[in-house]
């Protein structure tokens, strides 16, 4: 999943080469991609571009092993250069902690999905899933919280009651906000460390 960040500011929009120079000053290697007009960082899941309506746009792809803290540091260093706030599309204004939490939760969602896929062949697969359900139930008591294998994320099942007399109302899965995947991954990594480590064995 990718995250789009905007930097609303009244300051003049810098040239792409200037963005690259700023990134270099932060100690990060980058490539200027002429075809897409982007500054692509080599060691971080971060791409910078000049938005069509002027202004700078950043795209972050939170992979299962990408360095989240370094990414957040570069994003806010860029915001300081621009004299801008940091806005996460779909969320709004965020500070360093909120952005780190969102990216880290997404990273742990990916890790959790990979580990649960391995759990399908684990001799104690059912026990692993029961333990996860218990953790999720404790995290959100009195809510129907589940791991959605199709969406590969934790969701809450909410009823859609079109007909008040219906005996079995339809449900819709609604994604839960952070830090739900952080908590679930912490449990899995400590309880089943070989399962959490892709180099481990069942």
Model description:
With 202 residues, this protein is an alpha+beta fold. The chain folds into two domains: 2-94, TATA-Binding Protein (2-Layer Sandwich); 108-196, no CATH class. The chain contains six helices and ten strands. It has helices at residues 16-25, 68-82, 96-119, 125-139, 180-191, 193-196; strands spanning 2-6, 30-33, 38-41, 46-50, 56-61, 87-88, 92-93, 145-148, 153-160, 170-175. A seven-stranded antiparallel beta sheet has the order 2-3-4-5-1-6-7, covered by helices on one side. The mean pLDDT is 91.
Q: Which whole number gives the mean pLDDT?
A: 91
List how many beta strands DSSP finds. Answer: 10
Biggest sheet details:
7 strands, antiparallel
What series of H and E elements makes up the topology?
EHEEEEHEEHHEEEHH
Helix content bin: 25-40%
User: What is the CATH fold-level name of the largest domain?
Assistant: TATA-Binding Protein
End-to-end C-alpha gap: 28 Å
Radius of gyration: 20 Å
Notable characteristics:
6 helices; TATA-Binding Protein; 202 residues; 7-stranded antiparallel β-sheet; 2 domains
Structure, briefly:
With 202 residues, the chain is of the alpha+beta class.
Blueprint (SSEs and pairs):
Layout: E1 2-6, H1 16-25, E2 30-33, E3 38-41, E4 46-50, E5 56-61, H2 68-82, E6 87-88, E7 92-93, H3 96-119, H4 125-139, E8 145-148, E9 153-160, E10 170-175, H5 180-191, H6 193-196
Antiparallel strand pairs: 1-5, 1-6, 2-3, 3-4, 4-5, 6-7, 8-9, 9-10
Helix pairs in contact: 2-3, 3-5, 4-5
């Amino acid at each position: 999943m990718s995250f789009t960040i905007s930097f609303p500011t009244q300051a003049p929009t810098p040239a792409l080469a200037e963005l690259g120079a700023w990134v270099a000053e932060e100690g990060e290697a980058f490539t200027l991609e002429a075809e897409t007009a982007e500054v692509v960082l080599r060691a971080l899941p971060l791409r910078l571009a000049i938005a069509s309506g002027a202004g700078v746009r950043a795209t972050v792809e939170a992979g299962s092993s990408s360095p989240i803290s370094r990414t957040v540091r570069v994003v806010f260093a860029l915001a300081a250069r621009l004299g801008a706030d940091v806005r996460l599309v779909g969320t709004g204004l965020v500070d360093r902690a909120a952005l780190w939490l969102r990216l880290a939760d997404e990273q742990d969602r990916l890790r959790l999905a990979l580990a649960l896929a391995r759990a399908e062949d684990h001799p104690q697969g059912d026990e692993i899933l029961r333990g996860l359900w218990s953790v999720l139930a404790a995290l959100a008591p009195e809510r129907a919280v589940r791991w959605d294998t199709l969406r590969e994320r934790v969701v809450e099942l909410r009823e859609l009651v079109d007909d008040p007399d219906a005996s079995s109302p339809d449900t819709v899965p609604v994604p839960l906000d952070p830090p739900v995947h952080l908590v679930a991954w912490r449990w899995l990594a400590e309880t089943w460390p070989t399962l959490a480590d892709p180099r481990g064995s069942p």
